[in-house]
Amino acid sequence: MRKLILLVLCATAWAQQPVAVTDGTNGNVAVKPANTQPALADKSQVITLSPNNGGLPVNLVAQAQAAVACKSSGSVSSLACSYGSNITKGNTLIVAFCNGNTNAPTGPISETNTANTWVKATHAANGSAFECDIWFAVNASASEAKQITVTPGGSNASIAMTVYEYSGMLQWAPGVDITSSNTGSSTTAQTQDVASDASNAVIIGAVGVGTGAQTITPGTGWTNDSGQQNPTTPAGLFSFISMSQLLDDADAVTPSATFTSEPWALVTAVFHSASLPIAGSVRVPGTTPRTTDSAQRCTLVSAASTNATNCKAFPGNVYGFRFVNTTTTIYYLRLYNLAAAPTCSSSTGFVESIPIPPAGASGQAGGIVSMEPMGEAYSTGIGFCFTGGSSSTDNTNAAIGVFGTILYR
Fold this sequence. Notes:
Blueprint: H1 2-15, E1 31-33, E2 47-49, E3 57-58, E4 62-71, E5 79-82, E6 92-99, E7 109-111, E8 119-126, E9 130-137, E10 147-150, E11 159-167, E12 176-190, E13 201-209, E14 217-218, E15 223-224, E16 239-247, E17 256-272, E18 296-301, E19 309-312, E20 316-325, E21 331-336, E22 350-356, E23 366-378, E24 382-387, E25 402-408
Parallel strand pairs: 1-2
Antiparallel strand pairs: 2-3, 4-11, 5-10, 6-9, 6-11, 7-10, 8-9, 12-17, 13-16, 13-17, 14-17, 15-16, 18-25, 19-24, 20-23, 20-25, 21-22, 21-24
C-alpha cells in the first residue's frame, strides 16, 4: 500500500502524467474523483483519488448493491434471504435481523458457496419477547451469488432480516467501531446519540416491534432500507425495519423511529473505511445536508389530558421551544429531567413550569417562543407534562387547542 501511495504522489506532484493504478491482482482499476458522490456501480475495485490532497487514495464507503429484506410466514426456525446480484470479493457483508424469541444467538449466520467469518456487532432483547442483532463479515472471500440464512435458535418464531453489501469498509480487521442499543415500550424507539470516530462512515440500524403489527417510521436523516416488514401470522416479532445513514463527518446522530405504542428493540452499528494518518489540517466538505447538526423536534397537539410525554430517554439538551395557544385559558408546560414519560402528579424529575399565554379573544392566538443558544442540560432525559396548573404535582387536564414544539438534542 505504501508503494502505491508513493507512486501516485510522485506522478501527480512532479510528472503530471497519466498513471495506471493496479490492484495487484486483477490489473488496472477504475479511478474517480473523491468529490464525486458514491454510486451503486462503485465496486471494491474502484480507487478514488482526491484532487485536493496530492493524489492520496481515499477509500469511500459505498453501497455496492441495494439492500434486500425478507420476512417469515408463521413460526419458523430460520429465514433465508438472497442478494439481488453477485457479491464482490473484498466487500463487507452486513445482516440486520430481529426474531420473536430471546436466544441470544452466538452463530446464527450461514451462507451458500464460499464461507466468510461472521462477527456480532450488537444485540438487544426486549424481555423474553423478541431480540434484534447486527452481524457482519469483512473482506468477502469470493465474487459469487450469495444467500444468507439466519437461524437464531430457541423456539420457532417470526423472523425478519435485511442483507447489505458495502465497499470501502475495513478489509483486514472488523470494521465496526461504535454500537448502541435500547429497548422499551412506547411510541418512540431511541438510543443514546452515536458518533463515528471518523468521517466517511455508515450507520446501520434494526428496529423490532412486538405484540401488534405497526408502521415504523425512521427518525430524521435515516433511510428506510427494508421497507415495512410485518411477518405473516407473527409470533413474538410483529414488525421490523432496517435503516441507515451516511456519516460524512464525526458529528453525533440520534437513532430513533416512531410507531403506535408497542414494546420495541433498537440496535445500531457504525462501520467506517480505512483511514490514512496525515500531518496538517484537513477539511472534508459535507456531501449531504448537515441534518446531524440540527435539533430534533418533540411536538405537542394538546389533548384534554395532562399530555405526559417523553422526548428523549437519554441525557440531552433543550435548545428552545415554541407554543401557540388558540384557547383563551392559560396553560403550563412543565419540564422534567426523566428518561420516561413523567407522572404528572409527582414532582420526581420536575425542573420548571412555563406559562403559555392565552389568546386575547376567541379566534385569536397567544403563545411564546424561547430559544436557548447554549442549550440547557438534562442529565437523565427530556420529558414534559402540559396541564392546567403550574405546581410540580399538578394533575389538571389541559384542553384541546395548544400546539407546540420543543427543540432538543
